[in-house]
User: Fold 15-oxoprostaglandin 13-reductase from Brachionus calyciflorus.
Amino acid sequence: MKARQWILVKHFEGEPKDEDLVLQEIDLPDQLNEGEVLLEGLYWTVDPYMRPYSKTYNPPITMFGEQLAKVIKTRNGEYPLGTVVLSMSGWRSHFISNGNDLKPISFDLGSTPLSYCLGTLGMPGATAYFGLMNLLEPKKGDKLILNGAAGAVGSVVGQLAKIHGCEVIAFVGDDSKLDWCKNELGFDHVFNYKKVDFSEVIQKVAPDGCELFFDNVGGNWYHTIINKHLKKYGKAALCGSIENYNDKEVKLYPSTNNSILAKELRIQGIIVNTFAKDWPKAFTEMNHFIREGKLKVKETTYEGFENMRSAFYGLFKGENTGKAIIKA
Ligand SMILES: NC(=O)C1=CN([C@@H]2O[C@H](COP(=O)(O)OP(=O)(O)OC[C@H]3O[C@@H](n4cnc5c(N)ncnc54)[C@H](OP(=O)(O)O)[C@@H]3O)[C@@H](O)[C@H]2O)C=CC1
Ligand SMILES: CCCCCC(=O)/C=C/[C@@H]1[C@@H](C/C=C\CCCC(=O)O)[C@@H](O)C[C@H]1O
Assistant:
């Protein structure tokens, strides 16, 4: 049978470009060996980490990433026809596996949509949960600064912070995202950072400073907020620096170190995989919140495997509200 796959043909330089990723058609064997299964992709994810992480590979490679796939042919008793699994099998429409790289869904999804397993109930949701709960340890009344607030991670961070009684000061780059975060997600103060000076508005709504900062964007945000807006003993979770993923040069901002020292801040990075054994517990809890209507989920869905590349580009242009998902 014919399968399609996206090949990273060379390293990205600056913004990802069309010539970096090309769609290829290949033939898969008609017969499976004993123990093998043939899978068909149902949903794929594009995530910002793919841009910087691609530097660790030697192209040409099949672009890496997770997908939700269904068994459509099997010679493996553990994976009957129709089984749905998660797999880090890359940007492939179909693939053959011996089962070792397949993961069943690790919690009771119930009637919650399957695609959420790549978003709120998947890697980005786990990042939000553990970054907030384990690194920032929110307390009632804490003021939390959050950027990338309408993204896959940020939208969950803000909602969990509200559930735990925080005052959320959120930043997005588009007015329809602002409307969603303010009126549907209930964040306390939401600003379009393209229209205001983020530091000025934080100063206005929190003149005495803030206890917590969840940083999805990095760059100038990180330095300004640590220097000017975190209170003494404040805490920052460094989750991502999407502002810098397409940069060709690394910038250094030495003055930030003095603020960290003088205010005795606790600044910690997160790699969500560190918490892997606890993901199912977090997903079960968040799935309850979803069913109770306390945790809202939005997806920006791109139809068709052939649109993976444009979905990926969209991440760096703020195209998605909530999780960017590609549907077969
Ligand atoms: N540490 C870890 O283990 C993990 C880290 N991450 C990181 O978390 C961050 C968010 O990921 P995720 O929510 O999945 O991504 P999303 O693409 O869903 O959301 C990110 C949002 O960031 C905003 N953004 C993009 N570029 C800029 C910029 N230059 N300045 C300000 N905002 C920008 C965009 O929205 P807008 O329109 O508002 O600008 C975009 O939608 C990323 O940095 C990612 O790398 C994600 C998963 C795991
Ligand atoms: C490479 C920059 C990562 C930026 C933050 C981010 O989005 C992380 C996402 C992780 C991703 C980690 C990828 C590389 C980190 C390498 C650090 C290490 O462990 O040595 C991947 O694991 C999926 C997301 O959890």
About this structure: The CA atoms of residues 88 and 328 lie 17 Å apart. The pocket of NDP (ligand 1) is lined by residues 47-49, 124, 127, 148, 150-154, 172-174, 177, 216-217, 239-243, 270-272, 315-316, 318, 320 (CB under 6 Å). The chain is about 25% helix and 25% strand.
